[in-house]
Amino acid sequence: MQRVFSGIQPTGIPHLGNYLGAIRNWVTLQKDHDCLFCLVDMHSLTMPWSPEALREQTLASTACLLASGIDPTRLYNQSAVSAHARLGWIFNCVSRLGWLNRMTQFKDKAGKNRENHSAGLYVYPNLMAADILAFHATRVPVGDDQRQHLELANDIAQKFNHDMGVEFFPLIEPLIPPHAARVMSLRDGSKKMSKSDPSAQSRIILNDTADDIAQKIRKARTDAEPLPSEEAGLEGRPEARNLLTIYAAMSNRTLADVLSQFAGQGFGTFKQALADLLVETLAPVADETRRLMDDKAYLMQVLRQGAERARAVSEPIVSEAEKLVGFLR
Ligand code: AQP
């Protein structure tokens, strides 16, 4: 059985982009793969954070993932398993500055003020490579934004194998969903939907009520034209494309099919149909999330047991990597 690893940062409540780009696929994959799903709390320190918020968001994200259907035995938080930090350091010393300089997510997150960002944000992709390779995972379901980081992880694995003269780390295959791999902000169709966007109206989060969802869709930015009948008519209309893509992904239909249903109609009718569809799928997840969030003892128990399992899988792999680089034990 192939091993799958994927992670999510507890930097806020997971949103519709995380759901369609990652979580929904995790639920499918766990049926026939050996899966590990991780709240990557160490990555959450790469941007300014509050300890109290990190604690709360780690538990809230755990609740969201469980409510979405993730198997509790597959879930843990990164910092509880030392293999991540240990292999991450080795990879800091294998990865090249030239490789990291090309990472577009660093450029996007750091913006013009690079000098003031943490060193952690810069080496984030090295830790991400360690997250996956500490388990010899070969399949990684992610949104499109992570494609470049997975290419870098493969470069690191190959260089490690080459330098140590042994085929130790396997190559990783990204599993990027064919549709809605990049859900965009509801306020600006050129920006990806993100937990850290200052506008709460830009995203639907997995504990929004039915009213919140309907209101956010009603207020989502659109344009004045009716909906086109073909994809070519979405050229230069990123907000319309985004909403239609969300509709297609949520209903498991093609964009062409959805366009043919709504061709020529105004956004009023379409937005009502989209809100109904989202409420139907997400409102039960939100109800269960809120219920689980009240049971902190259970959430902590899930994380502790998941960490134990993750330690058992990663320990022999990372100990062997440490031996290969020359550490004495
Ligand atoms: N907008 C998105 N569309 C599709 N997939 C997405 N993912 C994130 N945003 C979108 C996928 O969700 C998984 C977990 O992402 P993450 O939380 O680890 O990091 P991120 O990509 O940095 O997500 P955010 O929401 O933008 O968080 P912040 O604001 O904290 O940086 C990944 O598989 C990602 O591809």
From TrEMBL:
<keyword id="KW-0067">ATP-binding</keyword>
<comment type="subunit">
    <text>Homodimer.</text>
</comment>
<protein>
    <recommendedName>
        <fullName>Tryptophan--tRNA ligase</fullName>
        <ecNumber>6.1.1.2</ecNumber>
    </recommendedName>
</protein>
<dbReference type="InterPro" id="IPR002306">
    <property type="entry name" value="Trp-tRNA-ligase"/>
</dbReference>
<feature type="binding site">
    <location>
        <begin position="9"/>
        <end position="11"/>
    </location>
    <ligand>
        <name>ATP</name>
    </ligand>
</feature>
<feature type="binding site">
    <location>
        <begin position="192"/>
        <end position="196"/>
    </location>
    <ligand>
        <name>ATP</name>
    </ligand>
</feature>
<keyword id="KW-0648">Protein biosynthesis</keyword>
<dbReference type="InterPro" id="IPR014729">
    <property type="entry name" value="Rossmann-like_a/b/a_fold"/>
</dbReference>
<dbReference type="InterPro" id="IPR001412">
    <property type="entry name" value="aa-tRNA-synth_I_CS"/>
</dbReference>
<feature type="short sequence motif" description="'HIGH' region">
    <location>
        <begin position="10"/>
        <end position="18"/>
    </location>
</feature>
<dbReference type="InterPro" id="IPR024109">
    <property type="entry name" value="Trp-tRNA-ligase_bac-type"/>
</dbReference>
<comment type="function">
    <text>Catalyzes the attachment of tryptophan to tRNA(Trp).</text>
</comment>
<dbReference type="InterPro" id="IPR002305">
    <property type="entry name" value="aa-tRNA-synth_Ic"/>
</dbReference>
<dbReference type="Pfam" id="PF00579">
    <property type="entry name" value="tRNA-synt_1b"/>
</dbReference>
<feature type="binding site">
    <location>
        <begin position="143"/>
        <end position="145"/>
    </location>
    <ligand>
        <name>ATP</name>
    </ligand>
</feature>
<feature type="binding site">
    <location>
        <begin position="17"/>
        <end position="18"/>
    </location>
    <ligand>
        <name>ATP</name>
    </ligand>
</feature>
<keyword id="KW-0030">Aminoacyl-tRNA synthetase</keyword>
<keyword id="KW-0436">Ligase</keyword>
<feature type="binding site">
    <location>
        <position position="131"/>
    </location>
    <ligand>
        <name>L-tryptophan</name>
    </ligand>
</feature>
<feature type="binding site">
    <location>
        <position position="183"/>
    </location>
    <ligand>
        <name>ATP</name>
    </ligand>
</feature>
<keyword id="KW-0963">Cytoplasm</keyword>
<keyword id="KW-0547">Nucleotide-binding</keyword>
<comment type="similarity">
    <text>Belongs to the class-I aminoacyl-tRNA synthetase family.</text>
</comment>
<dbReference type="InterPro" id="IPR050203">
    <property type="entry name" value="Trp-tRNA_synthetase"/>
</dbReference>
<dbReference type="GO" id="GO:0016874">
    <property type="term" value="F:ligase activity"/>
</dbReference>
<feature type="short sequence motif" description="'KMSKS' region">
    <location>
        <begin position="192"/>
        <end position="196"/>
    </location>
</feature>
